[in-house]
Amino acid sequence: MCAADALRALTDLTSGENPPTTRVRLDEKTLYDIAVDQGESARALLREALASGTLSGSASSAWGNAVLTSDEQASDVLLRVDRLSKTLPELRVHIAAVAGEAGIKPAGTLAQWDRQLAMFDGIADVLDVFLPRVFERSAADMVIATAPKQWRKDHDISMGRSERNRLVKQAQDLVRPGVHVPDLHRALIRVQERRDAWCAVCGDDSWPILPAKIGEISALTDAVRDDLDAITPVFASEEPDLVGTHLQRLTTLIERWAGDTSAAREVPARLQMRERLAARGLDKLAQDLADREVEDAAIDTELDLAWWASLLRAMLASQPALGGVDPASLEDLTREGCELDEAQVASLIPQAITGVRRIRTNALAARPSQYEELRDLLADGMAPSDLDLLSSYPLVRHLLPVLMTVAAPGCLGRWRDP
């Protein structure tokens, strides 16, 4: 078999009525596999794929990029998505309420909310030990006063005994009744850390507070986070970081996924079919046929076109006598040639304009009498027909150097220079 055979086959395929039009090309392994059984198994698989409908409309589906490998996984993900469609809006309401109560900017993503929640959890830990007024002012002096002597020496800090005693007594008074603090210094360091974290978010003019129902909100956050972590791998190609996605967009995505349950249940079968097609090197061709809604009767010729065109490309690329280039390279060379041609034409425009002006100037200088006659003729409104004008006044052809006309052969003899 030679390139001429492939060209003849392609000519026969594309010259008939309603010819195949696929532009998909197959790799060499696929070409060999099809040749082994004359394409019988490939045609059967393509027909099965198109008849199943699993390739149609998948791109526009909310679950078009989802990865589900089994019906059981699809059911679990659908359950979680449905639950998130209720819990996520509820959590967003709580996030806004907490922001308003605490005077902070509402979190835009779940990751930001996790950081805010960690701040509140730290405050809650402190308030389990100390009274709320421990946050009213900086605890730095009490940290120094309760520190061991060596700590103050290491940090080059000095404080009088009376001042230390007063501050230690003040710190002890801030401990909740009945709570034993084994290391008051370390406990006060945590107080200062929590206060600094709060001031970094809310400013120095306020002190930390613990919003109402923060425990319930924390539990709801954990439930939302668990569901999001479970479905993230399924939608990784569409939205790889659900926790970092803005809550408004995340809500929209969840609503889309929850509203298209039938498409979700089709995903495992679609992916299994794609795997079978990919194993035979037919996935791109099958998707092309599905996108163009090719009828069953036309599948054979579409496959034949893809096979012969791919074979010709392989021949062109592998045989130096045929140029050693493939069709894609030829297309690139053609496109590059057209671009260079257009650039060349564009670069000649100024030269062409200059040449036209020179011709016009020379023509007017050589035929001043014709120029005067033309002016008088046109001024009187007695202009002859275009043909008479060109035959009687050759100057016109120099004034308008580009002339497009259709004339009878008998008229051509009348056109002559004086």
Overview of this structure, please?
This protein is mainly α and 418 residues long. Helix content is 66%, strand content 0%. It has 19 helices and no strands. Helix 4 (71-102) packs antiparallel against helix 10 and helix 6 packs across helix 8 (161-173).
The strand count comes to 0
Strand content: under 5%
The topology string of helices and strands comes to HHHHHHHHHHHHHHHHHHH
Return the average pLDDT rounded to an integer. 84
Computed over alpha carbons, the radius of gyration is 42 Å
Structural class: mainly alpha
Quaternary structure classification: single chain
Unreliable residue stretches: 404-418
Number of H/I helices: 19
Tell me the major beta sheet.
none
- In one word, what is the shape? flat
Through-space gap between termini: 66 Å
- Helicity level: 55-70%
